[in-house]
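re: that chain from earlier
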Amino acid sequence: QVQLVESGGGLVQAGGSLRLSCAASGRTFSLYGMGWFRQAPGKEREFVARIHWSGGSPYYADFVKGRFTISRDNAENTVYLQMTNLKPEDTAVYYCATGRLGWEYRYWGQGTQVTVSS
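^ sequence. v structure.
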């Protein structure tokens, strides 16, 4: 089993920044990668960014390119999502997820709320 705990969410004004963290524990060996997703009220969950467990090959959804950066601290088994130039439409619960078989997302965190005011 793998446990994921997100943190770092909060309330920020438009144009501001936040850094989300996703700490992984448990059987983290052989994980393939980590992804960030978000879900806004009344909307379906959507992909935001992902990174290989090695810390390489970051990939982003078009709507966050140039604003969000995903990275991994290998020593701490933690993946970060640095979010800059936040917009009200970025308001959502953000989740991290991971798995072992390619880009499967078997394990999910509990989510952290990000609210961007205009």
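The chain is about 0% helix and 55% strand.
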